[in-house]
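DM from R.C. (forwarded with permission)

"hey, sorry to bug you on a friday — could you get me a structure for this? deadline for the figure draft is monday and I only need the backbone to look sensible"
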Amino acid sequence: MSHYVGLMYSGTRNCPVTRPFYGRTMNWRTRMPYRPEVTGILLRYALLDVMHGVTQPTSVDEIVHAIERLGVTIPERKGKWVSDALRTEHKKGRIIRVGRNRYVGTEIPRSTRYRAKRAIRDHRARVEGTFWENVG
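My reply, with the result:
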């Protein structure tokens, strides 16, 4: 058999990512409702912003409070979201796990720090509704 039996999309016509927009125009500046909660890469960036230069072992609860002081909202079960992000960053070597529920930040490349700070700043501007005024 030359084709994969479990293939969900055959070609690009039915793929939701590359499906053509029939009769619709795609505008990347369309104002869509923006979720104020951070998940995924934005949460990891907020975590890196908080943990950069931390030399004392820090618990997950302390990290959650520090992220919320940045002006960022985390969805329900905040400890789970943050611990998952901590696990990912620990695998990448950006955060060291000292013990159970104890983490220490490491040195992060300057470009990654810049990207993280800019992403969090842009997220807060989108939530406040001032993002499009700052785009040049």
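R.C.: lifesaver. Residues 1-10, 16-28 have pLDDT under 50 and may be disordered.
me: no worries. The beta strands are 95-99, 102-105.
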